[in-house]
Amino acid sequence: MLLVDFDPQGALSVGLGVPAHQLDRTIHNLLIGNEAKADEVIIPTKVAGMDLLPSNIDLSAAEVQLVTEVGREQALGRALRPVRDDYDMILVDCQPSLGLLTINALACAHSVLIRWSASTSRCAGWPADGHDRQSAGPVEPELAINGILATMYDPRTVHTREVRTRVVEAFGELVFDATINRTVRFPETTVAGEPITRWAPNSAGALAYRQLAREVIAREAAAR
What beta strand segments (E) does 135-204 contain? Predict the structure, then answer.
């Protein structure tokens, strides 16, 4: 599996213990000026079978630099094409906004997982006003929604339960059964630089992510 950190904050890289701010090459170098090839930037993680294309604040400049490029919406797809067949699955972690970087991810994706914070009623990184996906630009024609995931969920509060109920009423079976609840374990994993499934494998958070993984894989298999 390949994880692509496509957020200038580099939270995915940091969460996997990668000091991205110290790296000479990141995904920014793949997008701008053909400065590097994907296999020169990809690094292994502590998890067996999981590689990472790291990111840092340099990626924030790419959105401006790509504006004048021909086929700017396909930059990420072009960068990943040489290694696409090397992995069973490639996951792209996007920033929570529908800018040029996110459109690049949508343009080369086959399916999308929508994350929403249960503390609000809006889905992060996806239009909330009912616009169809064509409003996001030239995305992959066969792009499907794999599912909608509730995060920052607190089952003890009436508000979060009501918000999830409204989302289920609106989107039905698209909403994953798995929910990612609030827990102190998640900040700990960031400090440790390991995914929660390794840092606290028996925690509720780890179990929730394993349930989510099973649902994602099952939906991908059913869609083929």
Answer: 144-153, 175-181
Distance from C-alpha of 7 to C-alpha of 94, rounded to nearest angstrom: 5
Question: What tokens does 149 get?
Answer: 């995931």
Residue 62's φ and ψ, nearest 5 degrees, are -65, -35
| Tens of each residue's pLDDT in the chain, 224 residues | 999 999 999 999 999 999 888 888 999 999 887 778 899 999 999 899 999 999 999 999 888 888 888 888 999 999 999 999 999 999 999 988 888 999 999 999 999 999 988 766 555 444 444 344 444 455 555 788 999 999 989 988 898 888 889 889 999 999 999 999 988 888 888 888 899 999 899 999 999 999 999 999 999 888 87
